[in-house]
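Q&A log
Question type: sequence-to-structure
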Amino acid sequence: MRTYSPPSERTYYLTLKEAAAEGFGAYSTLRTWIARGKLPAYKTGNRVKVRREDLEALAVPMGIDPVERHVKALVDAAPRLSDEQIARLRFALGGDAA
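Response status: OK
Response body:
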Protein backbone atom coordinates (compact mmCIF):
# COMPACT_ATOMS: atom_id res chain seq x y z
CA MET A 1 0.00 0.00 0.00
CA ARG A 2 1.31 3.43 -0.94
CA THR A 3 1.39 6.29 1.52
CA TYR A 4 0.60 9.82 0.44
CA SER A 5 3.59 12.13 0.24
CA PRO A 6 2.50 15.76 -0.14
CA PRO A 7 4.10 17.72 -2.97
CA SER A 8 6.39 20.60 -2.12
CA GLU A 9 5.25 24.21 -2.45
CA ARG A 10 7.38 24.43 -5.60
CA THR A 11 5.46 21.68 -7.36
CA TYR A 12 4.18 23.31 -10.51
CA TYR A 13 1.75 20.59 -11.59
CA LEU A 14 -0.44 18.61 -9.21
CA THR A 15 -2.44 15.49 -9.86
CA LEU A 16 -6.12 15.82 -9.04
CA LYS A 17 -5.58 13.63 -5.99
CA GLU A 18 -2.80 15.94 -4.74
CA ALA A 19 -4.89 19.04 -5.43
CA ALA A 20 -7.82 17.56 -3.50
CA ALA A 21 -5.53 16.59 -0.61
CA GLU A 22 -4.27 20.18 -0.44
CA GLY A 23 -7.83 21.46 -0.11
CA PHE A 24 -8.41 22.93 -3.55
CA GLY A 25 -11.69 21.02 -3.83
CA ALA A 26 -13.03 17.51 -3.98
CA TYR A 27 -11.69 15.24 -6.71
CA SER A 28 -15.12 15.20 -8.39
CA THR A 29 -15.36 19.01 -8.22
CA LEU A 30 -11.97 19.37 -9.89
CA ARG A 31 -13.06 16.96 -12.65
CA THR A 32 -16.26 19.00 -13.15
CA TRP A 33 -14.32 22.27 -13.37
CA ILE A 34 -12.02 20.70 -15.98
CA ALA A 35 -14.98 19.38 -18.00
CA ARG A 36 -16.64 22.83 -17.94
CA GLY A 37 -13.44 24.61 -18.97
CA LYS A 38 -13.16 26.46 -15.67
CA LEU A 39 -9.86 24.75 -14.78
CA PRO A 40 -7.21 24.06 -17.45
CA ALA A 41 -5.75 20.55 -17.24
CA TYR A 42 -2.78 18.79 -18.77
CA LYS A 43 -2.21 15.12 -19.39
CA THR A 44 1.15 13.51 -18.69
CA GLY A 45 1.06 9.83 -19.50
CA ASN A 46 -2.26 8.64 -18.17
CA ARG A 47 -2.45 11.22 -15.37
CA VAL A 48 -4.42 14.44 -15.48
CA LYS A 49 -2.58 17.32 -13.84
CA VAL A 50 -3.40 20.94 -13.08
CA ARG A 51 -1.17 23.90 -12.40
CA ARG A 52 -0.99 25.14 -8.83
CA GLU A 53 -1.24 28.69 -10.19
CA ASP A 54 -4.57 27.90 -11.89
CA LEU A 55 -5.95 26.38 -8.68
CA GLU A 56 -4.90 29.40 -6.62
CA ALA A 57 -6.53 31.73 -9.17
CA LEU A 58 -9.86 30.00 -8.52
CA ALA A 59 -9.64 30.61 -4.77
CA VAL A 60 -12.12 33.29 -3.71
CA PRO A 61 -11.57 35.11 -0.42
CA MET A 62 -14.43 34.70 2.04
CA GLY A 63 -15.73 37.19 4.55
CA ILE A 64 -15.60 40.94 4.71
CA ASP A 65 -12.52 42.74 3.44
CA PRO A 66 -10.71 44.49 6.37
CA VAL A 67 -10.94 47.87 4.61
CA GLU A 68 -14.67 47.41 4.03
CA ARG A 69 -15.10 46.47 7.70
CA HIS A 70 -13.43 49.75 8.79
CA VAL A 71 -15.44 51.82 6.30
CA LYS A 72 -18.65 50.25 7.59
CA ALA A 73 -17.65 51.02 11.19
CA LEU A 74 -17.01 54.67 10.28
CA VAL A 75 -20.29 55.00 8.40
CA ASP A 76 -22.22 53.36 11.24
CA ALA A 77 -20.61 55.70 13.80
CA ALA A 78 -21.12 58.90 11.77
CA PRO A 79 -24.04 61.17 12.68
CA ARG A 80 -27.00 61.42 10.30
CA LEU A 81 -26.85 64.31 7.83
CA SER A 82 -29.61 66.89 7.84
CA ASP A 83 -31.59 67.58 4.67
CA GLU A 84 -29.71 70.87 4.31
CA GLN A 85 -26.32 69.13 4.60
CA ILE A 86 -27.37 66.56 2.00
CA ALA A 87 -28.46 69.33 -0.38
CA ARG A 88 -25.19 71.22 0.09
CA LEU A 89 -23.15 68.07 -0.54
CA ARG A 90 -25.21 67.24 -3.61
CA PHE A 91 -24.62 70.76 -4.97
CA ALA A 92 -20.87 70.62 -4.18
CA LEU A 93 -20.55 67.29 -5.98
CA GLY A 94 -22.32 68.55 -9.09
CA GLY A 95 -25.75 67.09 -8.44
CA ASP A 96 -29.09 68.86 -8.25
CA ALA A 97 -29.31 71.81 -5.89
CA ALA A 98 -32.90 70.94 -5.01
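Response note: Residues 63-98 form one domain.
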